[in-house]
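Work Package 3 committed the consortium to producing structural models of liganded targets before the mid-term review. Because experimental data for this complex are still outstanding, the team generated a predictive model from sequence and the ligand definition alone, so that downstream docking and mutagenesis planning could proceed in parallel. The input record is reproduced below exactly as it was submitted to the modelling pipeline, together with the SMILES string for flavin-adenine dinucleotide.
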Amino acid sequence: MSDNTPRSNPSENNIVVVGAGPAGLCAAIALAKSDVPVTLVAAPHRPAGNRPDTRTAALFNPAIALLSNLGAWEYCKQQSAELHAIRLIDDTGDLIRAPEVLFNASEIGAQVFGYNIPQEPLVHALREIAKQTPTLQIFESAGVRELNPGTDDVELRLAEGETLRAKLAVAADGRRSITRQAAGITTETRDCGQTAVTCIFAHTRDHAGVSSEFHRRAGPMTVVPMPGRHSSLVWVERPSVAQRLYDMDEPGFARTLEQNLQGLLGTISEVGPRAIFPLSYMHADRMARNRIALVGESGHAMPPIGAQGLNLSLRDVAHLAELVAESSGRGEDVGSQSLLRRYDSLRTPDARNRGFAVNTLNQALLSEFPPVQLGRAVGMHLIKAIGPLRHQLMKLGMAPTTPLPPLMHFRGTSS
Ligand SMILES: Cc1cc2nc3c(=O)[nH]c(=O)nc-3n(C[C@H](O)[C@H](O)[C@H](O)COP(=O)(O)OP(=O)(O)OC[C@H]3O[C@@H](n4cnc5c(N)ncnc54)[C@H](O)[C@@H]3O)c2cc1C
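The resulting structure, written out as tokens with the ligand in place, is given here.
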């Protein structure tokens, strides 16, 4: 069902998801599997303003399992590339240089770490699946304008003047979420003073399924495999430099990129549209309150280092869907305090730990303080030299050590 007439039955045990980015779409589809009626309020999704969103998402195996279980993976697979290894290269120019480190999925008994998926087709595929999900109603709207959480339900007022009521509202409305604000959840936010430039490009040398992250003084520059001799780029720079890169003509940009990649991928051509993303770090003080649960960037945002953002968001989705399925199976209120407390206790540590790790690495790159530079170099030496440490980091990078919900396991396997 995807008509534009909102249903709202105050006595119903129902859910409204606010926001149709990747986290909101996955949440709506996953929650609808528990047979609780779900309404998705879908405002236009334009993360790069009026330009194409040329970001890709490197998603690890648990996130791929989730997409597969939601039926989205078969639509995305053709446009995605396997990630066999991740290479870290010190390009800081510091006096104390860190060694190059290669993390290979085969070292931890995995065929691949995951896949690199272009974000626009991913959102498109999820939209199609959402439309075909019987217990999910999509309400195309200019957006939710006001929310009033009460004791028994949440009232949501839409831009079109309609009112919805829900036992549970899911905030998937991004980092400036008004749904989070309505819940009375505060945030800690820090501007990183960095901007990412993204695009997809062609090259003459094989990437061999290896993602390469150049650690530079202004931030990382990462090239991630795409099918064939194509890669995606996330180039983090100071805002003024990023703007210059964004404004360059295509041959000039290709030349500059080629020089900065130091021949790694050979000659660069066919540079696709560029997009630009100012970076900030944000975490919510909790992940749920007052009949509202946060998923994705409404709860946590961080610079694109180590491909953590959407992987973390999809773990929010899988955990929330599991709790809701259990609760509705017992005939309980899906927005109850006990469910929200449980969700918060499952998600806050993961979000905080990832944010802390990403922020620490980013700050270590930016630091001009020699002891910090020395610490970073020593750390990389240890990671390169000590196999078990490297293996542990690889596993932790992909997912926390705590058990993952069933939606993040490939069906029929225990992986
Ligand atoms: C350069 C870059 C590279 C990245 N690479 C990776 C990567 O390789 N791997 C990875 O895991 N992550 C990566 N990330 C992170 C990932 O892109 C984000 O985590 C993800 O896109 C966030 O999705 P979201 O659905 O939470 O939020 P958004 O994409 O911000 O979606 C929020 C949605 O809510 C809607 N909305 C807002 N307000 C309202 C309202 N009032 N009512 C209704 N709807 C509303 C918006 O229109 C939007 O559609 C990267 C991020 C950047 C910036």
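Reviewers should note the following from the model. Residues 18-24, 41, 43, 45, 47, 55, 57-59, 143-144, 172-174, 178, 196, 198, 234, 277, 296-297, 304, 307-311, 313 surround flavin-adenine dinucleotide (CB under 6 Å). These observations will guide the Year 2 experiments.
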